[in-house]
Amino acid sequence: MHIQMTAGHLRAALSSFGRIVERRCTVPILTGVKFSGNRLVGTNIDIEASCTIPTIGQPKGEAVVDYFALSSLAAHIDGAEEVTLSEEKGLATFTFNGSEYRMPSFPANDFPDFGTVKGVRAETGNLGFVAAMRRIRFAISTEEIRYYLNGAAIVNGRDGRPMLVATDGHRLAMMPIDGVPADWFGAIIPIGAVNHLVMRGHEPISIAIDLEQRRARFYLPGHQMSAKLIDGAYPEVNRVIPVDARPVFAVDRAGLLRVLRRLRSFSEGWREGVKLIGTSEGLRLEIAQSERSAVEHISWGGACFCRAVRGRIQCPLSDLSSISPDRRNGYIRDRAPRSLQRLAYRHHVGKRPSSHRPDADARVRRS
Amino acid sequence: MHIQMTAGHLRAALSSFGRIVERRCTVPILTGVKFSGNRLVGTNIDIEASCTIPTIGQPKGEAVVDYFALSSLAAHIDGAEEVTLSEEKGLATFTFNGSEYRMPSFPANDFPDFGTVKGVRAETGNLGFVAAMRRIRFAISTEEIRYYLNGAAIVNGRDGRPMLVATDGHRLAMMPIDGVPADWFGAIIPIGAVNHLVMRGHEPISIAIDLEQRRARFYLPGHQMSAKLIDGAYPEVNRVIPVDARPVFAVDRAGLLRVLRRLRSFSEGWREGVKLIGTSEGLRLEIAQSERSAVEHISWGGACFCRAVRGRIQCPLSDLSSISPDRRNGYIRDRAPRSLQRLAYRHHVGKRPSSHRPDADARVRRS
């Protein structure tokens, strides 16, 4: 195998595999990337990414070379420097400007092949698919027991509109996404693929979902990602989403975050509780610990249904932080009362909507 | 006690005590700062810092309030906000803009008093005292056994010029500082005080050193720091500094750092060794590990005395990084062959200069 390119191009190509190629792995070949012509492929069996690399001259042959060794080398070489990677008899040699690095390589034939993805391939460039993933991924479960919650699901909403949904059994986040083909319903995209897409930040040009083979492929500019979909049935989320729920309270998200951060910094431990009390002037936040106590006020304009909600400071803080307004597309207003409805929603996942009493005293629970 | 000020002024004043007030401490009152009029004092017994704070109106009384609680609150409040701190019967109340925080306080009478510092007080504004500390502090020992090495010492150089020196028994760093009063010789400034001065970054306007009481006081703009000097005899460093030592090699510091970082990133472990070999063209760096190997070249212009030096990659890397050119004053050239002499020096601390053979094969040791 022989390939020549600039260190900058190599660095850019290798960045496509972040969070896919794993450093600690029982199968050593999976710590490498396959060079095949001007194409690079990396996989962790469940997810596969590939991209093309601009080369100098014609590349020859194929081989699998350690991803992390190449990445760290490329990070420490001037981007314009020309580098050469060659492989012979299980030894890869990386040379540039008189320097020479040698490392073991793996035979290209042993590299796992992900296979093809059939199914409808839909243009999704302006769908806001990745933007929706970015908003809801905080609610994806990471528990292995309910493995079917370890991803974002495309489900049919109560009104028949498709939506992207994530839940960990305690909280639920959803975003409607119009224009999804009907045969995508039921697909559960695993958290690894969601994180990879969100990290790359680009909307896919097109997506193919093959529900029969349980596979999806995302076509991004200069980059492809394929993932095995989670093989399971997503719970019927419409049962637990309240119909015409009244908001518990509506305050400025940024203001509430600032106050919660101040309370947390003052608190004696991050597991300590905060009490939220609705008054005629606004929301009152209280902490009372063994040695310290604090009272904060946030005024509001609209109606107030909140009597008292208790929870750890960390709970609303992590939720409010994760549903921060989408900076890239900016279509979510910072003053989003909907985000705070989830403080009430939280009590209802797993219960019937009829039991929805947002003004009742209740304890915020967390797994 | 009652004091009113802006959150920004409080934040700036509290920043004076970073690395002095300790979070985990067997004496709880030492986790607090004493408010006494418009003066703040913090101490860890060995080092005391104090500063004045611009107040709104006339402050009254004195009390000791938790440093970290106040710091974290001040960090989360808009700088222009007016804050009030009052204390009564062991309870401190911190209020601003309708918010109220309560925490326990300590009686001001129990706060330890550092005492006065007599001795010559010399103007040192343009002496480069802190700049010299910044250059040599990497070599200060942190071993408790040889406690007298846990600081930077003012000693008499071989030519009679005063110098600031630090050593951990394996490496030695020194900087001449002209204009030091003769009765300061023998003072060992503890590492905590050195770090505090370097972190604040300002040269002291004046310094008083009281060798009888073993105390020093540093007068900085709007800020004072007093420290107990280390009570011990500094070793006779002139014995181990080679006379007219020939440099082992001379290469560009930045270039060598870049290559060493690349080698480290490629290396299988940070404890792995690097071999430095002098050739007619330049310096050759080699690593050869169980699975990986690398060869790098750095060209030089001047004469070369280096045959082969071995050491962990981490050793020259940490040394070269810590003696980075002084960005603030910029009087150290980046191309500093002297810095690299220390690779040779290292073999000679504790030996007689007569045994100085910089071109011999030798192993770089490290505690």
Structural summary, described in words:
Two copies of one chain form a homodimer. Chain A is an alpha+beta fold and 367 residues long. Chain A folds into three domains: 109 residues, Roll (DNA Polymerase III, Chain A, domain 2); 120 residues, DNA Polymerase III, subunit A, domain 2 (DNA Polymerase III, Chain A, domain 2); 111 residues, DNA Polymerase III, Chain A, domain 2. Helices cover 18% and strands 31% of the residues of chain A. Chain A has seven helices and 21 strands. In chain A, the strands form three sheets. In chain A, strands 1-6-7-8-5-2-3-4-16-15-14-9 form a twelve-stranded antiparallel β-sheet. In chain A, strands 19-18-17-20-21 form a five-stranded mixed β-sheet, covered by helices on one side. In chain A, helix 1 packs across helix 2. The longest helix of chain A is centred in the C-terminal third of the chain and has 14 residues. The termini of chain A are far apart. In chain A, 40% of the residues are buried. The C terminus of chain A is likely disordered. Chains A and B meet through helix 2, strand 8, helix 5 and strand 19 of A and helix 2, strand 8, helix 5 and strand 19 of B.
